[in-house]
């Protein structure tokens, strides 16, 4: 508990003084236990998507899994961030995990239920709001990080995960790291 507070305090302090320049400074609690540390994915493109199980865009889980299946071996990391900020997520992490496994056979990394907007937002989402003016306005907003951990692009709910807008950027990054 004390360690979690110190991590959060430290990240909050760094946000206040503006010393975080890349997303790799953040970590999320994994729904499987442990943490998803963005530093571990340095050198790879990362797509971070806030999700919800009861949303009209929930079908996009299928596209996110397709991205993972197609590009993970080449280096892409797709992370889903379940959030109830728009009142469309199930009540518990276990329920979310079961829903995603049963309905979409998801095998990609997933965080615990996490706030993505407002004063309770996870430090990553606070940082991206402060530094890049981006706040998810609904579920299935997407943030693409380049292999250096910088925000490359952001996308709204309407942009499908397998759209050319997203896949062309992913392929560009993967081409650079795999050449």
Describe this structure in words.
By secondary structure, the chain is an alpha+beta fold. The protein has one domain (2-177): Glutaredoxin (3-Layer(aba) Sandwich). It is built from five helices and six strands, in the order αβββαβααββα. It has helices at residues 2-17, 60-71, 93-104, 123-132, 164-177; strands at 27-29, 35-37, 46-51, 77-82, 142-145, 151-155. The strands form two sheets. It has a four-stranded mixed β-sheet with strand order 4-3-5-6, covered by helices on one side. Strands 1-2 form a two-stranded antiparallel ribbon. β1 and β2 form a beta hairpin. The longest helix is centred in the N-terminal third of the chain and has 16 residues, at 2-17. The model is unreliable at 5-19 (pLDDT under 50).
How many structural domains are formed by the residues?
A: 1
pLDDT < 50 runs, ≥5 residues? 5-19
Secondary structure tally, helices: 5
DSSP strand content: 15-25%
CATH topology: Glutaredoxin
Secondary-structure element order, N to C: HEEEHEHHEEH
Tell me how many strands there are.
Answer: 6
SS-derived structural category: alpha+beta
Just give the CATH class. Alpha Beta
Strand order across the largest sheet: 4-3-5-6
The CATH architecture assignment turns out to be 3-Layer(aba) Sandwich
Q: For the record, what is the CATH homologous superfamily label?
A: Glutaredoxin
């Amino acid at each position: 508990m004390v360690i979690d507070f110190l991590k959060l305090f430290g990240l909050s302090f760094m946000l206040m003084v503006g010393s975080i320049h890349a997303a790799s400074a953040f970590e999320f609690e994994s729904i499987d236990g442990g943490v998803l540390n963005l530093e571990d994915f340095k050198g790879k493109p990362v797509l971070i998507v806030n999700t919800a199980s009861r949303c009209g865009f929930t079908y996009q889980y299928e596209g996110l899994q397709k991205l993972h299946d197609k590009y993970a071996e080449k280096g892409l990391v797709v992370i889903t961030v379940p959030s109830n900020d728009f009142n469309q997520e199930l009540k518990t992490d276990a329920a979310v995990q079961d829903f995603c496994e049963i309905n979409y056979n998801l095998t990609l990394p997933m965080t615990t239920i996490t706030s993505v907007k407002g004063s309770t937002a996870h430090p990553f989402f606070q940082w991206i709001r402060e530094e890049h003016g981006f706040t998810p306005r609904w579920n299935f907003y997407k943030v693409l990080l380049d292999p250096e951990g910088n925000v490359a692009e952001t996308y709204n709910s309407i942009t499908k995960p397998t759209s050319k807008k997203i896949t062309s950027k992913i392929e560009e990054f993967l081409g650079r790291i795999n050449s």
